[in-house]
Amino acid sequence: MYRGRFAPSPTGDLHLGSAATALVAWASARLAGGAFVLRVEDIDAPRTIVGAEMRQLDDLHWLGLDWDEGPDVGGPRGPYRQSERSARYEAALEHLARRDLLFYCDCSRAEIARIASAPHAGDDGPRYPGTCRSAGLRRRVFRRPPAIRLAVPAGVIALEDALQGSIRQDVAAEVGDFVLRRGDGVWAYQLAVVVDDLAMGITEVVRGADLLASTPRQVLLARLLGGEAPRYAHVPLVVGADGQRLAKRAPGISLRDRRARGETAARTIELLTRVLGLRPARTPAELLASFDRSVLSGRRTLRLPPEALASARCGGSAAEQTSSCEQRHQKEAEYPQRR
User: Fold this and answer.
1) What is the largest CA-CA distance in the chain?
2) Residues 182, 248, 259, 299: which is the catalytic one?
3) Is the dihedral of CA 54, 60, 63, 66 positive or negative?
4) Catalytic status, residue 248
5) 27 and 110: one domain?
6) 231 with 116, same domain?
7) Number of structural domains, the chain?
8) DSSP string, 32-44
9) Percent of the chain residues topping a pLDDT of 70
10) What is the pLDDT of residues 253-294, one digit of tens each?
11) The domain containing residue 23 runs over which residues?
12) 217 and 298 inside one domain
């Protein structure tokens, strides 16, 4: 049985890019006749914003999306907040420790950058040079609270992404030994997401292409934990009309801001389906009726039309609002579908 998921982090309000991914993830699960899981990835407590989870779930409901399992509806694979799943992450570390695959590391980022000879590997910085690897989990005098790293075995990880095609990476050579728990005790995303996807029986992960680079690490880690990673489908990243990443605080980017400005869920879904290159739809049901995510294949980014970020209220008197809004929506309707 197909089991998909959408897993936002409550570090702010959902924006148009998140909503686009949620639509594709939801439609993929519903079209497959499977379950759709909502998981809250709140392991990084310092970055978690009070009330963000509630707003995110409310915004998803506003769009018309539903889920079969989640923090608000329960389910057999809970809990559905990562902050409540620490025992499972501890068990995963114990499993890896028994295989001599872990070691303490008290190196700072600056030290790693100075020592490493390899170029940066995505958002994680330069390849870890293996400074502390030989010490394993032996207790010693640490210069700072140590992180726990995975001693990555050599070998190429290969996978076939449903939208981005063939991916191959020698994780040991290109990334090096990566962190599973930070020095401050916070669980690394790489560990938590793998443990949770395995425990929740997720069969396909539909998420943004900005996470594509971390996927080989997650496939490797799943195998080291005795499981098999789900299939992956990385949705192109929604960017601004200038091709730059969306500024989260820009007017009209977050669903919450669009709602406050008078935008409707129907207009938002219509905009997103056009940007995604899908047949225009105004409701989730209409989206399902003609859903074909293959139009996204091979693309890493999708651009919003400039008109998408105009004020939803359009300003002015009632008559001016009507005229201005009609002009804006007409421009959005003319935005070419990306096939």
Assistant:
1) 73
2) 248
3) negative
4) yes
5) no
6) yes
7) 2
8) TT-EEEE-B----
9) 87
10) 899 999 999 999 999 999 999 999 999 999 999 999 999 999
11) 3-74+237-334
12) no
